[in-house]
Amino acid sequence: MKFEVTILGSSSATPVYNRNPTAQLLNCNEKFYLIDCGEGTQQQLIRFGFKANKIDFVFISHLHGDHYFGLIGLLSSLHLNGRIKPIKIFAPAALAEILELQFKHSETVIRYPVEFVATQTDAPAEIFENADLKVETIILNHRIPCTGFKFVQKKRLRKLIVEKLEAEEIPVDCYPLLKRGADLDLPDGRVLLNADYTTDSDRPKQYCYCSDTLFDETYFESIQGCDTLYHEATFLHEMVDRANQTHHTTALQAAEIAKMTGAAKLLIGHFSSRYKTLQPLLEEARSVFENTELAIEGNTYTI
Amino acid sequence: MKFEVTILGSSSATPVYNRNPTAQLLNCNEKFYLIDCGEGTQQQLIRFGFKANKIDFVFISHLHGDHYFGLIGLLSSLHLNGRIKPIKIFAPAALAEILELQFKHSETVIRYPVEFVATQTDAPAEIFENADLKVETIILNHRIPCTGFKFVQKKRLRKLIVEKLEAEEIPVDCYPLLKRGADLDLPDGRVLLNADYTTDSDRPKQYCYCSDTLFDETYFESIQGCDTLYHEATFLHEMVDRANQTHHTTALQAAEIAKMTGAAKLLIGHFSSRYKTLQPLLEEARSVFENTELAIEGNTYTI
């Protein structure tokens, strides 16, 4: 099952040439989840060949503009392009008010249902679940209320050893129950022990998204042991005072967090516009946590 | 004196690959005026090498998102990049409310003065004047209140014939009065007839900007005889019914308007996303009004 994230924007507060504000597109089993939506996200989707209309769920971490100014444009374009299926938005409550005011003054009546779910910042909570994954909030420490998101794949059904089943002419009617782990007594007297005909499914993977936050141990439990940790790394550690002051993280701190929480892989992004080249941020992080990659726009990372 | 306009966006309602929503940057004597500000305008400014901080005046035609969704991001970036000088925004009144709500929820206190001037749509009005130009509104006919803008250069001072003045050793102290058209009696008894030492300045030019509108003769008087008429041309004329229904104009109609109002040059833009190539729109307009050009992003047009 596909579980991968494409970077649509990797800049912090202000865009720079070649780096747009934050947005990511998560593909889980060919269902698409948009995570944050900075200005120009719809143009980035076009640029990288994604159909915006495939997105059914949007997760907005907080109401600093570099994480949501692109949403009103995206929703408007979906409307103008004839969308009819619903979209569900998980975001701070005030976002609904902001969008409604803009639709009101453009006299736009969105022709598809937009469902809002207000995120809370008092404690981590499970906010979404479907057949493929569930999503929990991560309570980050930023200047305004801010939640990260933890995307956890569901445990899949057991995998059939099809060659063996076919060789022994086991009826296909048995397959669904075998996938669910059952042993079977067949009418012809044969006994099928599940372990002989199936193998365990892949371990469910976790993707944690920490958009904007101070280095703060309170959320480490939420992101413990994830497969890919996306963590902001706005500054080099020589600017740790500035990071503390603005409630951001340095590349070194992001790497320390990955190490402390047992992440398998670290993806860093939300780079300050002061960095023309990102190599120093990568090298700083790798000095602490080797399996680090830069979040580069247009790149897709398997989780 | 420089008087030119650079196209930052030429798409209608939804962006397409290579075309962004509407925005234009007018340069009049090295002062910069932003006209509409679709999503991604700040990225376009970066892309084409303009410093956003040079913009002191913004004119927003109406509150359809493809004409203003980029403004909140631009204002935020100016704030984050340390702007302190004021900016003045001419726009429908509700825009102030929309911006304030977003600043409130991001807990942003913009550190430079933002002055709003609410445009009215009952009658054309002069809304701005400085040493270089004045600006009047054009009352367009769109689905929601919408004003175009007419930028009229001020009459410049007379041009000195410097070689002659230097050859006759006329004191430079006389130059300012000569520029203003005065004849002079010099203390040494010489009489300077202004016409002998100066020539008339260039004729003041006019740029008319008609963003979104139905073909409607009521605004033709406002745009009479302009040097460059920018007029939306969303559709080919084969879609005139759709143009009427959505209160837009066809390329053929834009050309007819240029002809009827005696424009010297026509610039067409606001192209529907259905047109991959724009040549048919250009050809249709040129069949009626030869001196037509396409508004191409990144191109600068002398007025």
Automatic annotation (TrEMBL), chains A, B:
Cofactor: Zn(2+)
Top-level division of the source organism's lineage: Bacteria
Residues that coordinate or bind Zn(2+) 1: H62, H64, H142, D212
Catalytic activity field: Endonucleolytic cleavage of RNA, removing extra 3' nucleotides from tRNA precursor, generating 3' termini of tRNAs. A 3'-hydroxy group is left at the tRNA terminus and a 5'-phosphoryl group is left at the trailer molecule
Molecular function in Gene Ontology: 3'-tRNA processing endoribonuclease activity; zinc ion binding
Presence of keyword NAD: no
EC nos: 3.1.26.11
Family matches, as Pfam families: Anti-Pycsar_Apyc1 (PF23023)
Positions in coiled-coil regions: none
Active site: D66
Cofactor mode of binding and number, as noted: Binds 2 Zn(2+) ions.
InterPro entries: RibonucZ/Hydroxyglut_hydro, RNase_Z/BN
SUPFAM superfamilies, alphabetized: Metallo-hydrolase/oxidoreductase
Amino-acid positions noted as binding Zn(2+) 2 in the UniProt annotation, renumbered to this chain: D66, H67, D212, H270
Keyword flag Zinc: yes
Keywords: Endonuclease, Hydrolase, Metal-binding, Nuclease, tRNA processing, Zinc
Assembly behavior: Homodimer.
Task performed by this protein: Zinc phosphodiesterase, which displays some tRNA 3'-processing endonuclease activity. Probably involved in tRNA maturation, by removing a 3'-trailer from precursor tRNA.
PANTHER family: ZINC PHOSPHODIESTERASE ELAC PROTEIN 1 (PTHR46018:SF2)
Similarity comment: family membership: Belongs to the RNase Z family.
Stated name of the protein: Ribonuclease Z
